[in-house]
Amino acid sequence: MKSINVGLIGTGYMGKCHALAWNAVKPVFADVPEIRLVHLGEATDELARAKAAEFGFSRASGDWRRVVEDPEVDIVSITTPNRFHAEMAIAALEAGKHVWCEKPMAPEPADAEAMLAAARASGKVAILGYNYIQNPVIRHIRRLLDEGAIGAVNHLRVEMDEDFMADAAAPFMYRHEASSGYGAIDDFGVHPLSLIHMLLGGVARVMCDMAKPYQSRKTAGDETRPVEVFDIATILMRLENGASGVIALNRAAWGRKGRLTLQIFGSEGSILYDQERMNEFRLYLTADRTTEQGFRTVLAAPHHPPYDRFIPAPGHGLGFNDLKVVECRQLVGLMLGEETTVIDFEDGIRIERTIHAMARSFREGRWVEVA
Amino acid sequence: MKSINVGLIGTGYMGKCHALAWNAVKPVFADVPEIRLVHLGEATDELARAKAAEFGFSRASGDWRRVVEDPEVDIVSITTPNRFHAEMAIAALEAGKHVWCEKPMAPEPADAEAMLAAARASGKVAILGYNYIQNPVIRHIRRLLDEGAIGAVNHLRVEMDEDFMADAAAPFMYRHEASSGYGAIDDFGVHPLSLIHMLLGGVARVMCDMAKPYQSRKTAGDETRPVEVFDIATILMRLENGASGVIALNRAAWGRKGRLTLQIFGSEGSILYDQERMNEFRLYLTADRTTEQGFRTVLAAPHHPPYDRFIPAPGHGLGFNDLKVVECRQLVGLMLGEETTVIDFEDGIRIERTIHAMARSFREGRWVEVA
Amino acid sequence: MKSINVGLIGTGYMGKCHALAWNAVKPVFADVPEIRLVHLGEATDELARAKAAEFGFSRASGDWRRVVEDPEVDIVSITTPNRFHAEMAIAALEAGKHVWCEKPMAPEPADAEAMLAAARASGKVAILGYNYIQNPVIRHIRRLLDEGAIGAVNHLRVEMDEDFMADAAAPFMYRHEASSGYGAIDDFGVHPLSLIHMLLGGVARVMCDMAKPYQSRKTAGDETRPVEVFDIATILMRLENGASGVIALNRAAWGRKGRLTLQIFGSEGSILYDQERMNEFRLYLTADRTTEQGFRTVLAAPHHPPYDRFIPAPGHGLGFNDLKVVECRQLVGLMLGEETTVIDFEDGIRIERTIHAMARSFREGRWVEVA
Amino acid sequence: MKSINVGLIGTGYMGKCHALAWNAVKPVFADVPEIRLVHLGEATDELARAKAAEFGFSRASGDWRRVVEDPEVDIVSITTPNRFHAEMAIAALEAGKHVWCEKPMAPEPADAEAMLAAARASGKVAILGYNYIQNPVIRHIRRLLDEGAIGAVNHLRVEMDEDFMADAAAPFMYRHEASSGYGAIDDFGVHPLSLIHMLLGGVARVMCDMAKPYQSRKTAGDETRPVEVFDIATILMRLENGASGVIALNRAAWGRKGRLTLQIFGSEGSILYDQERMNEFRLYLTADRTTEQGFRTVLAAPHHPPYDRFIPAPGHGLGFNDLKVVECRQLVGLMLGEETTVIDFEDGIRIERTIHAMARSFREGRWVEVA
User: What are the structural domain ranges in chain A?
Assistant: First the structure.
């Protein structure tokens, strides 16, 4: 492959993040083909042109179908609102493009299944934007688990908390409507599940509770409307490997900004991680001498690949956007036929089935098998 | 009351802790009557005499009934294994003594109910040894909650973890038998519940899962025996005040030594606490200027009473045993007719009913009302 | 020795701390003679009687000489203001009593030297109240250093910070007068030096700077008076073992409450300690596998003696006052002829000579040998 | 300015960092002209061509003078070893190019002065690569200091520690020769000084000690050679604003990877920062209610500009390389005539004079004015 020719649809939070990754992946990693930024799609021609200039794309369109159909484009980054993912991804796959779609796949299970079917039919690379799993620290945790450093894992706790829904005085908006999803479990829950899948495998069964910190909110017109989504969720679970676990999610957790914590307990040690301090993890090993056993705080370093591709000195810190660059490198690797670690549509559908099992468990007040 | 005359039964972990508290309460607090250490009971006369000399008691008996019946004794500390609590506490109350009994009340619900009945019938002070609630830091958190510092509490997470059951190679012992209780929920769960009761009120309903990190252990005779208790438990709950919550308990959590954490989320802030760093708590307030909002780490200080009775300088640190001294002062206050904060037998029975509701929820795989 | 008969002079901050220690040492440690609280001295008969009742002493005097001369007293705790230490300690030693005197020895070097001479002449036990060195965590650090766990120590940093002098609006008081001492170096500096002596040995030479955060303060009568002491000091040093080091002291450090940190760097690892979290230390070992090297946070536990004498469970935490109980046990051990770890008058005079060398270095703007 | 045309000399650690910044600055900030990567210089044509392909440069040369003389180039990034800085920067300035030179200016004071003279003569933008000052967190600390949030600053402590010189068994290399500089003070000391200059202004006088953790090392040929540089330095200082301070530097500090800490004490609060956790700072304010005063841990967020240009969500974390992108934006701003915060050659020379004053202070064993 002489070059990789990129199309991008959407230029918001994640759109910019993809653009930065496509700009950085070659200078960071070197061992990839030339990256050509070919075609950017946005809602209008004008916005598309402006963003193409910012992000370095050659062509711009106010109609996303032009990007998907552009014969020069090899791979399409899809970063639009979730409800557009299915249509765009399926169109891109049917047009013979590889697809890098932001998570989650789709609000409706049927749409997600259709995306998977399209990916299978196309034979193209189709992955989802689960960037937290690309942290060199998370990859090293995976290596330690694979080596048996902490023995057999028997218990797991995962928390994900932010506070953008914590202000009781903030007005009612579309994200408070049931049509936007369940709330915490789909908006947040997919991230913990991506980490669980990558580190420990699938979830077998779930028992879910969901709660609203505020029952209603004022509209712009000063009317009171009931909130229809659940910003808080707590989930008991059993993994396929038999370990017990709990997930707690809260989008209304004052003071938490990007928290995503893991507590992994094994027969010979424990591992802790907190995304708010994403350049370190903590490790307890029973192999250490008894009188000095304690959690080690290990800082990310060049010996935790691919940290070394970013910085040759330890402890200097990667950023959130760097994780997308790693993800981009994984995607390119897949396109080149390498073995890489990603959440593809096959894995993605398992994550989304787990979310829907949580919702059903809550509705029915009982344990539900993920199946 | 000219003096308070103390009897003590049991001299193990908690027995020594009571003895230290009885020795310290007068020099620490000053505003209590003279404390006279009158009668110590242990399993044998010899052990009783040795411990009486160590702890400063005048009399010693190898029969606990002598302590309970000693006419000079006003108050009996009961620190024997749980299965003896009911018999001893009831005997003491019936003999007209006040009772300070270590938690939990009794393995069997009927025994706990009998203890409560005896306490009611006697009109005497009857409290349980829930020392974590006596931490000046916890009391200050209570004050903040009462003041509405973090607004209305809507979510709560509590974890309690130690690792004394974490060694898979440790032999089978009586604590692995079903006769010793459920495992984590009664051994550990009562502590989180004491904090929840003190800070936020009662638990309305629970959904509990329980797990075994190790299915079996070797006996001393090198046979394999199934473990009958559950060292891990995870519980979804709703409080009487409507807040949702989760409790996670693990006696096999490598690296955790005395962890007991609270995460309390409100409409205007959050509070965090970790017993392993018991001289501090963390507080997030939305009242702070936006650009400098963050969790404050507040160190225990003389303005968090009764820290000032121990040390006049801030940040110097109380210890675990000091909490028992505060508890002792609360008990003495009750005997003198003051309003104090303790877990008495009335509160204690509510905690134990919650434990049994957890156990039933696990057995039946469904939510159970605490009633 | 059938019993140890105690006299106590002074009942303020440290007086109460001694009283608590004398009450606790037997129930905590068991392996000491009976402790009899014989005679308490205070400024007036009335105060002495009140405090004797609180602390459990049999006799009380408004004249400290009565305590020193009491034929029944074996050991005198001296906890009065520093300027009284010399007279009282010398009188006690000359009366054939052992002495437990709070640090520092005396404001005037000549007085400290006289105290040492009296101790030598008496042949009695004469120690100083340096409790921070008695922390089981500090003792374990000493053990690690002795074992060579971090190799040869080549650099050391020590900080001690509190904020009781930080309020610029607080009025002028006697502690701001030159007659009360230098400021930070004698008030604070002795604690870091006690730790350095205990862990690494003596200081060879010092280069000291001293500073005033506030040049003047208002008196009660609203006049402005220049502050004559230095609340801030920074000291470069070389240890007798050749290591370089720095000490930083600040009594006006807003937010620091009881901070006393060590950073010890060796050829094979590092050790960190912070008194504000006195139940833990941090350890980095190059012997760990490279990819998981990191600072371990080790919690105090029963295998760090004498933690086990206080609590049988790890991670539950000792308090500031418990350190005095350990110190008391060390003192009793000395009286019984055991080898123990204390700062006696011999060590104490070396610490105070170092302080005076710092002061001279500052006055003369040059390095000064401690000699 | 229609576009900014970039030349880059050197492609090592910092060369790659510059290349990444030049690739990212437009997509991150948008409000800059098109960035054209024109000419890359390396030691050989072959290496230059390979790196040009990786980093996206159009032209490549094995002779750096071609880059400097390229008429299309507007600005030259100089990232070669320190000894080449002066020659290259002066040549570039004389060729009418703007210059972005990595720190420090030059090993020899005279060379640094010549660089400054060339910059002044050219009228071109000439800045140094002090990226730590570009952290949104550091900028926010600057804003707080300017607002007087912590009152008047009276004391400062700065530490910078890594462990790449900590291995006693590592062989002797050129960096251990005196010709490579002093050791810690020039290699590390410039970073703390850049922060001090940016936050608090200049250093008035210094008193410096320097030490060697290891006196000698083995050469590749197994001979023993004395180490000629000082990996450890400790410096007392007074700032021009009157505050006292201390700097401690250690390149042989096992366990420290990218530590660069600030402790800033003021009359109404304190600020703490640690580069190893570069997305947070700690703030203590006496304006908070007494009973809840404590250090707040504030996470970087969009309201700390220009964090918002990278990520719209708080607490998600920038990385070390992102700081260079901010620096690049500052440089571009300067080229466009904006007011920006950088260390230009004028500030840089003051930093380097301070370093040389430290060295002289050590040689002469006395305080030295920076002048």
Answer: 3-124, 133-319+326-369
Is 80 exceeded by the pLDDT of residue A370?
yes
Helix axes D190-199, D136-147, angle to 10 degrees: 40
Q: State the count of interchain CB pairs (< 8 A) between C and D.
A: 118
Q: Are strands D98-101 and D75-78 parallel, antiparallel or unpaired?
A: parallel
Closest CA relative to residue B225, chosen from B170, B268, B274, B271: B170
Q: Do D155 and C250 touch (CB under 8 A)?
A: yes
What pTM did the predictor assign?
A: 0.98
Q: Which two tokens stand for residue C38?
A: 């014989």
Contact by Cβ (8 Å): B19, B48: no
CB pairs under 8 A between A and D: 120
Residues 6+ apart with CB under 8 A from A348: A103, A104, A105, A112, A116, A128, A130
Residue A267 to residue A285: CA distance in whole angstroms: 10
Contact (CB<8Å) C304/A298: no
Amino acid at A230: F
**Chain B residues inside the 8 Å CB shell of C314:** 257-258
pLDDT, tens only, A83-116: 999 999 999 999 999 999 999 999 999 999 999 9
* Tens-digit pLDDT profile for residues A275-325: 999 999 999 999 999 999 999 999 999 999 999 999 999 999 999 999 999
A60 is written with which tokens?
């711009």
Percent of chain C surpassing pLDDT 90: 97
| CB-based contacts of A139, cutoff 8 Å, min separation 6 | A133, A304, A305, A341
The alpha carbon of B182 is separated from its chain's Cα centroid by a whole number of angstroms, namely 17
Number of other CB atoms surrounding residue A52 within 10 Å: 23
Q: What is the pLDDT along chain B (371 residues), one digit of tens a residue?
A: 789 999 999 999 999 999 999 999 999 999 999 999 999 999 999 999 999 999 999 999 999 999 999 999 999 999 999 999 999 999 999 999 999 999 999 999 999 999 999 999 999 999 999 999 999 999 999 999 999 999 999 999 999 999 999 999 999 998 999 988 999 999 999 999 999 999 999 999 999 999 999 999 999 888 999 999 999 999 999 999 999 999 999 999 999 999 999 999 999 999 999 999 999 999 999 999 999 999 999 999 999 999 999 999 999 999 999 999 999 999 999 999 999 999 999 999 999 999 999 999 999 999 999 98
Buried residues in D150-186 as b, exposed as e (16+ CB within 10 A): bbebbbbbbbbbbbebbebeeebeebbeeebbbbbbb
Superfamily of domain A133-319+326-369: Dihydrodipicolinate Reductase; domain 2 (3.30.360.10)
What is the enclosing helix (H) or strand (E) of C298? strand C295-299
DSSP-derived secondary structure letter, C171 = P
Question: Which residue in C208, C254, C281 has the most chain D C-beta atoms within 10 A of its own C-beta, making it the best mutation to test that interface?
Answer: C254
Is the ipTM reported for this complex over the cut 0.95? yes
Chains touching B, CB cut-off 8 Å, 3+ pairs = A, C, D
CB within 8 Å: C54 and B318: no
Taking the C-alpha atoms of residue A259 and residue D306, their distance in angstroms, rounded to an integer, is 21
| CA A224 – CA D196 distance, rounded (Å) | 52
Q: Torsion angle, CA of D341/D343/D346/D351, rounded to 10 degrees?
A: 130
- How far CA A239 is from CA of A154, A159, A242, B235, in Å, comes to 9, 16, 5, 17
Task: Report residue D371's pLDDT band, with 50, 70 and 90 as the boundaries.
Answer: confident
Instruction: Please judge whether B284 and A254 are an interchain contact, meaning their C-beta atoms are less than 8 angstroms apart.
Output: yes
- CATH number for the segment(s) D3-124: 3.40.50.720
Give residue for tokens 């040869």: C152
Which one-letter DSSP state was computed for residue C175? G
DSSP 8-state assignment for residue C21? H
Q: Determine, for residues C213 and D245 on separate chains, whether the beta-carbon distance falls below 8 Å.
A: no
Give the closest residue to A246 by CA, choosing from A281, A282, A289, A203: A203
